[in-house]
Amino acid sequence: MTSLKNKTALITGSTSGIGLAIAHALARAGANIMLNGFGDEKEIEAIRVSLEKTYNVSVRYSSADVANKAALETMVKDTVKTLGALDILVNNAGIQYVAPVIEFPDEKWEAILAINLTAAFRLSKLALPHMIQSDWGRIVNIASAHGMVASPFKSAYVAAKHGLVGLTKTVALEMAESNITCNVLCPGYVKTPLVEKQIAEQAKVHNLSEDRVVKDILLAAQPNKKFIKPENLADLVLFLCSDSAEGMTGEVIAMDGGWTAH
Fold it and tell me: Is pLDDT at 119 greater than 90 in this prediction?
């Protein structure tokens, strides 16, 4: 079993969905965790306490808006101050908006690029000096199948995720001779609370059953017609943080049910 005892991980967008599954996987391996994301304060505190008690690790929470440069700087400082290090960075936070290019609002484009791409750049820039100092580090970026292929009406999201793939490769090359790796995961559709909400909404809009929405709309491009499990992605992140993956850097890894095999 991979041991991350005495390591510290900062995971953006980790109060639910994929990020929370990653927090569980890394905490289970012994890593201290800095949670980040939005949500009900009481629910987040319950998550924080549960992680601490379940895995006997230290867990803190930052409400930093990842689109805010100063907030990111404060979050990194708080991580190092309260947990003693910053060894693992998982850039997971993201938002989505769907519209044709000719109708795409400029403010939505800017918000998606800020949260899905620029935040990852800024946090990598802030985290790397700490990793260099300790001569060990892991950066894992969570992109999407849309980091490898495109879909209509998702110009900002596709651009941001392609950019995240490029950022990953650049950081990996710059750090190649160190003990710091940088890789990117490109999942297909993952069953998260956000996606479950989309299923219900689209069922109403299209007057279809939720099963039809899943098969004919959401998973139309995903050959296995199955959602990716957050826990499976989390286990892959855990592997990339292990010593067994020390030779993997700059890798673009799909877990997409065959989507990008087309």
Answer: yes
